[in-house]
Amino acid sequence: MGAPKATCRLDGRRFVDWLIESLSAIQCEPLLVVTGAARFEVPSPAQAIHHPDWRRGPLSSLQRGILAFPPGISGVLQCTVDRPRVAVSTLRALCKAHRDQPGALWQPRADGRSGHPLLWPRCLFSHLLDLDSSDPKTSARTLIGSPDVTVTRRYVDVQDPAIHENLDRPGDLPGSSRH
């Protein structure tokens, strides 16, 4: 993107601000933002958690975030910054599904395809933390595809094309790329 994705702008707002606003709307607490190569300010109520080993990849950032959450939470809603426009209604639906069935791994699905974000149940935290983030072939998908987890995976059907967005390059941005 030519800049840290979290600080890239879409319709005048940073990607990270889109997510924090949406997560605040559903009263997602605590709200942690894992930063890596670039440190940046995050608005309240979010709290920035710096990840010095960010080069190890997205799995290690997820692991860093899980370790920063207080004990007793029932799950973690993993939002990636390159999908800033996920609808608040999608986030609400995932959280409701989690409240109804807290032991399941929840994922949104639109037009027959699964997307992001994922809502990880507490019972999978140790499995996520056990994954070897130093191996570039290992990711959270490794765990999702394992037989033990496949049986806990559930879908929430939504009308939200943003769950499939992946804004990785300036050309992926709707309209012009503005940083």
Oligomer classification: single chain
Distance between the amino and carboxyl termini: 9 Å
Q: Helical segment tally?
A: 6
Number of E-state strands: 9
Low-confidence stretches: none
What's the mean pLDDT score? 89
From the helix content, strand content and strand pairing, which structural class follows? alpha/beta
The radius of gyration over CA amounts to 16 Å
Q: What is the CATH fold-level name of the domain at 54-172?
A: Spore Coat Polysaccharide Biosynthesis Protein SpsA, Chain A
Strand content: 15-25%
CATH class type of the domain at 54-172: Alpha Beta
Overall shape: it is globular
CATH superfamily of the domain at 54-172, by name, is: Spore Coat Polysaccharide Biosynthesis Protein SpsA, Chain A
Strand order of the largest sheet: 7-6-9
Helical residue percent band: 25-40%
CATH architecture type of the domain at 54-172: Alpha-Beta Complex
Give the helices and strands as they follow along the chain: EEHEEHEHEEEHHHE
Question: How does the major sheet shape up?
Answer: 3 strands, mixed
